[in-house]
């Protein structure tokens, strides 16, 4: 009953934390209240130490929902991480919020106030109230998509990823954006999209921007441009949102069959090094620290078996022993290492130890015990007590016979009688 109650409370907690809440935030910079929608991940309440990336959506009154749907679907299949989704409702204020000086191409008074609201009021409020990871994304459409580029002008941009859908570019942006992205010293994602049904003025500016972006050689930049066919200025967002999220979170995905075939299976060794680098990249690029997925373990295990570099199982055990210490995964990896390297006794010991620990994935107690029993059959059987001893090899020694006092014609000595086995 206690366990059932605890399970119910955890489900209730997850449900509450995954709901969307609305806050009215007063901005001294704008001298007005702004409505902000916030959706926390379902796991937020159950993981008090975990931090989550932030996705800040401008034009939240109509862009919040399509982003929410794509994130929910991607997270269900573990192709995207859970994020804290925040949308700013702008309504008729969006044009004032996105206003730029015509000559300089930087935010004007009203645009500058909104810029400061985001950087000096909203983000500090969110960081104080919620557990934000260092990785932050900002997204917008047309006017707000052009506005969000202003954050790139700062020496230390506060966002690491930019989703700019059919942006209305201010003066000089088509040249300044590539210049700023060329100078970035940390990983950064930049996505821009247009369509054949886009507004011609926007479409032409965006294509000039893309042409200039082709000259950027910064290896820290992850850039993607989409030119959709058959989409209008507004409907292109339905194509752009999943494309942009897929670009940004590509590194997060589990090892796919294509990744396995093209990048892992071809390695003669160092498969675990590949695994380390994959999760290091997730941490450095997205600010997400996570345990190795069980399916990713299985992919590396398959590559180790294929290559015959069995030391990899011992290296995997160093990871599984730390990240899944209460489960049988560590002993399974060590058992496989010793089994494949011919140390059968040690392999049996680890499979037996695994039997005493928690099951995980497709590893079960029955499986561990069966592996131990199968290996026992391969052990050499010991000789039975009282059996005929193995003949020892002896060297033939030829030497001169010593003199004997026994006459040559004396009968041979009697052999002592042996006790016959009684039979009934």
From TrEMBL:
Positions of the UniProt region annotated as Disordered: 378-424
Residues in the signal sequence: 1-18
Keyword Signal appears in the UniProt entry: yes
Keywords carried by this UniProt record: Hydrolase, Signal
A Pfam family: Esterase
Composition bias type Basic residues, residue spans: 378-387
InterPro entries: AB_hydrolase_fold (IPR029058), Esterase-like (IPR000801), Mycobacterial_A85_antigen (IPR050583), TPR-like_helical_dom_sf (IPR011990)
GO MF annotation terms: hydrolase activity
Keyword set includes Signal: yes
Lineage: superkingdom: Bacteria
Name under which the protein is recorded: Alpha/beta hydrolase
Organism from which the protein derives: Flavobacterium humi
